[in-house]
Amino acid sequence: MVDINISYGNDISGRVPEGDPATAWERRRDEYKLVSPLNRRKFKVIVVGTGLAGAGCAAALGELGYQVSNYTFHDSSRRAHSVAAQGGINAARARKVDNDSIHRFVKDTVKGGDYRGREADAFRLAEESVRVIDHMNGIGAPFAREYGGELATRSFGGVQVSRTYYTRGQTGQQLQVSAHRALQRQVAAGTVTLHTYSEMLDLIVKDGRAVGIVSRNLRTGEISAETAHAVVLATGGYGNVFHKSTLAKNSNCTAAWRAHRRGAYFASPSYIQFHPTALPISNKFQSKTTLMSESLRNDGRIWVPKKAGDERPANEIPEDERDYYLERKYPAFANLTPRDIASRAAREQIESGHGVGPLKNSVYLDFRDAKQRLGVKVLDERYGNLFEMYQDATGEDPHEVPMRIAPGAHFAMGGLWSDYDQMTNIPGLFVGGEAGWGYHGANRLGANSLLSACVDGWFTLPYSVPNYLADQLGTAPLDLQDDAVITTLREVRERVNRLVGIKGKTPTDHFHARLGEILYEGCGVSRNEEKLTRAIEQIRQLRDEFYRDLFVPGTGETYNQELERAGRVEDYLYLAELMCVDALDRRESAGAHFREEFQTEDGEAARNDEDWCFVSAWEEGPDGAHIRHAEPLHFEAIKLQTRNYK
After folding, report:
1. Does pLDDT of 573 surpass 90?
2. H-only helix segments in 101-246
3. How far apart are CA 98 and CA 160, in angstroms?
4. What GO terms fall under cellular component here (predicted)?
């Protein structure tokens, strides 16, 4: 039996203002300390990441007059992974006459997250969503419009209203371009210094406060430090731990994980969303999976043959021999059920022998009926670039044959724990976007990702960071000759040299691929105690092999992509264990965390609110032990209830 060293710490507070959660954000903003315009240039803030959260935060703080140092490992801020989001961004503007409201937005978000996120955070998300759309529209995002000029909306999973604003299937890309332009305006103004090709490798902590970072120039190999009054991490999610995921190959967990190793709590690491409309894996040599927007589920119908092992082409299977299983099981939401439910349902069909395609590992997403109802022109107006992308990837025309889709590792609801002000348990270290854990609970609703990143970057951190800075007036950033800086620099260089010096025979990607196989099997769409225990043992064995037999060619003093990957995979090998430990520890099913031992008679997730209505926030002990703290969750406006989409 594998030894899993878990201990339990004290409960922690999210510092949510007492009282009505609907007014918590307004009241908290009024409490925040301010920094006068003439004093802002005396403060320096490091922002790591240039996606919608990072670029928004850096641009907003720069616009306010702070000194901002912004880091990205890309060659340009516009290449951040926010560009990959396709379908849209939610907002509770209620411009459609469909009875939407801020309360309904919050209810959908809290319920969609299976009551494992902060209720007050969801209210902030809803409240600021109105400003986000107007702001992004104002800085140039070309949202789709109705004939009369009104911004157009559509529906997404987990809702029964039309609140998702979009730019065809390019919403993330267009929002990122707009944020990039706003950031570059501040670079030109001299308030933001942009560091490209620079990867954060560690956090500098002095007297318990975050005071800077250590980074490596990916072109030259130079390792250097920079200090500041505060650090913001907006470095995205960790879905690439599964190797084959919908994320860009360079997306990684290193910045967040290094902060965790320096004492920052990691919240709900096992909450990983599997997107139900990813393209299926076609062979073991495939490097990643490809995402197809959830917006396709507005008009596409999902089905499998009623007969297991049916070999006939899709168009030859008559209507009465098709099982539209989401419409059958969840008639109220049908094909727009939340992602965790849709992914589990697809996995059930595949594992029961009803899968389709050459490897029998997918289900159909069919636009036949929509084509007859709407016509090709309307479908292409809504999804044309997505149809083109699918045809480029598969050689099949979705106008003529159904798409084939399957669940793929996608979004991390877990991340660095932060309080209501977006500050971690390390004072001075803030977190935004997918690098954090807020808003989404155990399952993110589609189109809330772009929204949460924008809310954090433009409308939360620019308030909460100055509140922290106000008490630092009169202090200077830590001297680069301080022992804390020198020690952190030395430890980073030792780590890089250790990876290069292993001199084994196995390349990094081999270890990453094997780790992905372990996680898909042990900590995937569904989990159980036996699978998780075995996965922890396999991860530890793989990690030992990594340190014995890793092969990294070249040196650390130059451009070396294999070294970059090795550092990221090393961190994944530790994060993966914590994911499995968290999943093993949480003895309930909630959202994307589906423990097979805890399900209802009809196969739905069985939540345990009496024992598990809290957020798990993990600390790493001095001996490597996993220490679990808990932040209790309270629901006042959206009362706890069984999740039901039928």
Report:
1. yes
2. 102-112, 119-138, 171-189
3. 9
4. plasma membrane
Res. 4: pLDDT tops 90: no
CA torsion 261-264-270-271 (nearest 10°) is -150
Token output for 69: 């140092």
CA–CA distance, 508 with 551 (Å, rounded to integer): 7
Angle at 72 between CA 70 and CA 73, to 5 degrees: 155
Q: Is residue 59 packed enough to be buried (19+ CB in 10 Å), middle (13-18) or exposed (0-12)? A: buried
Choosing from 78, 79, 209, 339, the catalytic residue is: 339
Q: Is 226 left (phi over 0), alpha (psi -120 to 50) or beta?
A: beta
Q: Which of 171, 163, 162, 201 is nearest to 71 (CA)?
A: 201
What is the pTM (predicted TM-score) of this model? Answer: 0.97
Q: Are 590 and 116 in contact (CB under 8 A)?
A: yes
Residue 579: phi and psi, rounded to 5, are: -60, -45
What span, in angstroms and rounded, lies between the C-alpha atoms of 441 and 110? 7
* 339 counts as catalytic: yes
The answer to whether residues 293 and 361 touch, using CB atoms and an 8 Å cutoff, is no
Q: Where does the pLDDT of residue 428 fall: very low under 50, low under 70, confident under 90, or very high at 90 and above?
A: very high
Q: Distance between CA atoms of 262 and 206, rounded to whole angstroms?
A: 11
